[in-house]
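Example 4.3 (complexes with small molecules)
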Amino acid sequence: MVTIEEAHKIIKDQKVKLKTETRKLSDCLGFSISEDINAPFDMPSFDNSAMDGYALCGISQEYTIIGEVAAGDKKEFELKNGEAVRIFTGAKVPKDTSAVMMQEKTRVAGNKLTLEQMPKEGQSIRRKGEELTQGQLVFEKGYSITPAGIGLIGSLGIQNVEVFRKPLINLITTGNELIEPGKPKAEGQIYESNSYALASACEQFGFKCGNKKQIEDDFEAIKSGIKKSLETADVLILSGGISVGDYDFVKQALEENGVEEQFYKVFQKPGKPLYFGRKEDKFVFALPGNPASSLSCFYVYVLPFLYQLSGSKKNGMERYSFPISHDFENRGDRPSFLKAKISNGEVEILDGQGSSMILSMAQGNALAFIDAETSLKKGEQVQCLLIL
Ligand SMILES: Nc1nc2c(c(=O)[nH]1)N[C@H]1C(S)=C(S)[C@@H](COP(=O)(O)OP(=O)(O)OC[C@H]3O[C@@H](n4cnc5c(N)ncnc54)[C@H](O)[C@@H]3O)O[C@H]1N2
Ligand code: MOO
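Answer. The structure with molybdate ion bound is encoded below.
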């Protein structure tokens, strides 16, 4: 049995070979870049107007209008003191422009322009290079591409982006009692739901599940299911059959497939029988079957590792501290990830903390980390993982 910190360290210390690929700009949200991106040119690449209005030469209140420039126009004006041109947002400002005045602050009679206020030098001009200068580091290798990142990369004229490949994930659920939702349920059976929860948790963070398989508690079937699944997966996630019962075959089936245990059992609640192993460049998480245990282990251990395999600097769930909204006592002897709800700047520990109970997790939005045998008074700080 390892501690939570030891389990995290074992995961973090895995030597992984990151693979790269080239993706179209429109198809790289959530991927991490595999090489630095530097600005190929100044941004903006020319002085341009921030307003629809008039580009002015010299500082005064009266000007003569000598022409017009719209966004995208190539024409060049040589402005003399006291002259102005009609200009639009994004249009290149003529050389010698002192300021741009928005049209709402102007009056025009024929070619005579009168300003309602004195312009300030440089007003409403977006200067060449004011956001980025040519050669400047824009994103460091490992940056996870956001929608704004996509916008910026596009505005640098880059269409194909070098990124780290994301791992392919296969899922195996085990258990004789499990049947697919939608089918009639006999006595003693329950609906298989972990694969749905885990696949959608992967999807929520931009990871895809390739293959999903449900296998009965039969050693040979589990063993061959694992063998087959490992052929295509970078990461295999199993649920159930990892505890000590007579029908818990997963650990042995992994061993017989040549998967080497990195840790088995974590001193925590839920998720004590969590297993992590590897076979060459393939990794296996065997999650406890209890629905809240499997999902909680996904958030706390699997997700950070998926990011690690994707070359990302993110390490999974962001942790934040919130004051607890009520007195609380964790009587358990293991450090706990408790189903919780953050609202109005406070965290509430929800009822229904059993490892098999997923209702509270579905109604909550966080996992609150509380040490074993700990009493907290209302207002004390609690570390939370957001699971929105
Ligand atoms: N003698 C002991 N028994 C147990 C121990 C222990 O230390 N000694 N640990 C308990 C803890 S803690 C956990 S957690 C569970 C984990 O057991 P398994 O990983 O072997 O899971 P299963 O027995 O297969 O299933 C547990 C529970 O979850 C339901 N389940 C399983 N898979 C699914 C699924 N895909 N969808 C929905 N529900 C699922 C299953 O029906 C069981 O009710 O072991 C304790 N026992
Ligand atoms: O480790 Mo288990 O998830 O407490 O029932």
